[in-house]
Amino acid sequence: xxxxxxxxxxxxxxxxxxxxxxxxxxxxxxxxxxxxxxxxxxxxxxxxxxxxxxxxxxxxxxxxxxxxxxxxxxxxxxxxxxxxxxxxxxxxxxxxxxxxxxxxxxxxxxxxxxxxxxxxxxxxxxxxxxxxxxxxxxxxxxxxxxxxxxxxxxxxxxxxxxxxxxxxxxxxxxxxxxxxxxxxxxxxxxxxxxxxxxxxxxxxxxxxxxxxxxxxxxxxxxxxxxxxxxxxxxxxxxxxxxxxxxxxxxxxxxxxxxxxxxxxxxxxxxxxxxxxxxxxxxxxxxxxxxxxxxxxxxxxxxxxxxxxxxxxxxxxxx
Length: 318
Fold this sequence. Notes:
By secondary structure, the chain is mainly alpha-helical. The chain contains 16 helices and no strands.
């Protein structure tokens, strides 16, 4: 029979374990020092601001502060769902999020698979660079480029339409085009970033798998569907779950640069409305309630999708 650990032995064991932890930390102290800026960033800009969410349940007054502002309970949340304009904005946010998920999310995967099939190394690197470069542009620059391309007087799109006898179209002045413009510009700007991630995942695939498939007579297309896609599936699942978590967080700057009074009805989303109502109109409690609602929905979506993903694929964020 195994001997029981006596209290004195347990104390020695715990002391030894703690000593080993401190020895490990002293040995790898540069790693902890490097991680400090990231930890401080999340503490200052992610965790500490969470305490400010309490103003969602108050009629917050900037001069009275949190302690002096009166409590109103769920009044701001009731107002949120009774406000007709907010319901339209929520509809816009959901539709744009769905379009982004359906049309934008698969693009980096397809690009990575196509670039991986290129055999000329120099040409492959050029294509990677060209696809990735727009990621470094700010949305202000992207907005300027899109406005120039779609201009009804000087834009290349309307010039091409004119060759077919079609009258110039003011794309940014029509509600029916704004969602397409938002999704298309996002694909052009950010698809390169996702492509690099998937190419890195593809680079980690064992070449022996492809050699074995070639010996068995599998074509290149068959290898993609039998080896490449199943191998990078964990990466796809993780990025998909992260995308789901940000479903309602489409991004303020990528929408604000395209908005104007003519396309505002179908283009305004929660982030731009929070800026207009919260910072411009100073409705701090109301917009905090909206932001809290968006965060709770995002948390619920990522938990549900993570559970579903683990049951279906065995992969998840946690």
